[in-house]
Amino acid sequence: MGLLNDRALIQDSFAKPSQKARFLASVAPHSGDWLLALPAANCGLRLDDEAVSVAVGMRLGLALCAHTVVHVVTRWMSKAFMRWYAKGVR
Fold first, then answer.
1. Which residues contact residue 87 at a Cβ distance below 8 angstroms, ignoring those fewer than 6 apart?
2. DSSP-assigned letters across all residues of 18-41
3. 8 Å CB contact between 61 and 18
4. What is the pLDDT of residues 54-74, one digit of tens each?
5. pTM above 0.70, yes or no
6. How many helices (H) and strands (E) does the chain have?
7. Torsion sign, CA atoms 64, 66, 72, 76
8. How far apart are CA 72 and CA 51, in angstroms?
9. Residue 10 CA to chain centroid, in angstroms?
């Protein structure tokens, strides 16, 4: 009974429906069977370490990408500005 009580306590502690769904999916029968699959490298289906990390992260619903700021010269900028920028005047 202790295990079922602990599971119910954990299940009821989630604030968001997505968290509860993720938990229920992880404890569902056969949810971890994919971890037992043999690699099929001889069929050309071998995944590198990064691909496995992404697959596991997606399965767990983790945030895999970080927001970055990229400065790009776009088409709307005037030719004069682009010439000025190309000269290295900053």
1. none
2. HHHHHHHHHTSTTTTGGGGPPP-G
3. yes
4. 888 887 777 777 655 555 555
5. no
6. 4, 0
7. positive
8. 29
9. 23
